[in-house]
Amino acid sequence: MTTLLLIRHGETPWNVLAKVQGCQNIALSETGKAQASLLSERLNGAFTAVYTSPLHRAFETAEIICKPTQLSPIPLEALKEVDFGSWEGLTFKEISKLYPTHFNTWLTDESTGPMYDGDGSIQNVSRRAKACIYSIVQKHPNETIVMVSHGGLIKSALIGLFDWKMNMYHHFALGNTCITTIRFDEAQRPMLVSLNDTTHLNTPVTAV
């Protein structure tokens, strides 16, 4: 049994402003660093490898997670956030006003989740994320591995792994530094064990 911990990065200034970050290289806020430290204390090095998106907010979260260990995070392009193209830097409220038709189709389409530009569709990201996860799981039988990525990428990955409709993307939320746990049996069949676990943040977060 291989255990995969899918982790969203810590908070950024753009998260606070509700701006779509996508592939913009936004760093962690001080609160985000504190969240990552709490997560690191919770995990306490109980994993054998850490893979991460190369974007600053994810990579820095991964570095903090690795502090109790001798491990270094391994960056993978396939774990980068959804490329939202023209929508990056805007809030979803702004997007709905500027691109009403495309935004509504993105929200409601079940088969591909087409986007205005960027990655083109949720389906494209879902396929990328699913392929990346299976390739890593194959390398780590019977281990616990961490992947630090982004809310959009993780949601797309779950859609791919569990064959959900594309508009499921819009029906659940993932908090900063949340853990989503998936276990894979010997046949590499995935089982969702927990979703959006942020119990480590019950401790008051202070700036570091």
Automatic annotation (TrEMBL):
Pfam families for the chain: His_Phos_1 (PF00300)
Family annotation (InterPro entries): His_Pase_superF_clade-1, His_PPase_superfam, PG/BPGM_mutase_AS, PGM_Phosphatase
An MF annotation (GO) of this entry: phosphatase activity
Residues involved in substrate binding: 8-15, 57
Active site positions, chain numbering: 9 (tele-phosphohistidine intermediate), 81 (proton donor/acceptor)
Key words, A-Z: Glycolysis, Isomerase
SUPFAM superfamilies: Phosphoglycerate mutase-like
Single GO cellular component term: cytoplasm
Protein name, as recorded: Phosphoglycerate mutase
